[in-house]
Write a structure and sequence with these properties.
There is one protein chain. The chain has two helices and four strands. The protein has a single domain (9-59, 68-105), classed as GIY-YIG endonuclease, CATH 3.40.1440. A four-stranded antiparallel β-sheet has the order 1-4-2-3. The protein is an alpha+beta fold. The longest helix has 22 residues, at 84-105. It has helices at 48-53, 84-105, and strands at 9-10, 27-33, 39-45, 74-80.
């Protein structure tokens, strides 16, 4: 079973004590650039909260003395499912719809 998508939420920024609000169940996540709406990442996973927390969204300097590079302004939304198989099936349907849309728009 698939639930509905959450509202878009601002992705937590490093050093501000913000938290990710996401289910610890299987599901789908989508991360986009807030300013443009362009897709940053998307996935069907076993644990949505864990997957979002492990995304490489900021970059650190190779040299300890430099400040970390600015993190992009991101937003995320989630959709919980009963199983990872349900998440994968829903993700494949979404990808198919996007490909159909993009091929028609080209």
């Amino acid at each position: 079973m698939i639930s509905t998508w959450s509202e878009w939420k601002r992705y937590p920024r490093l050093g501000r004590g913000e938290n990710i609000e996401a289910p610890i169940t299987p599901g789908i996540y989508e991360v986009r650039f807030a300013g443009t709406g362009a897709l940053h990442s998307f996935g069907a996973v076993d644990n949505v909260a864990q997957a979002l927390s492990l995304l490489p969204v900021g970059t650190k300097s190779w040299f300890g003395r430099r400040e970390p590079a600015a993190m992009p302004d991101l937003e995320y939304r989630t959709c919980a499912t009963s199983t990872k198989a349900d998440a994968k099936a829903a993700a494949e349907r979404m990808i198919g719809r996007r490909e159909t849309y993009m091929s028609g728009a080209a």
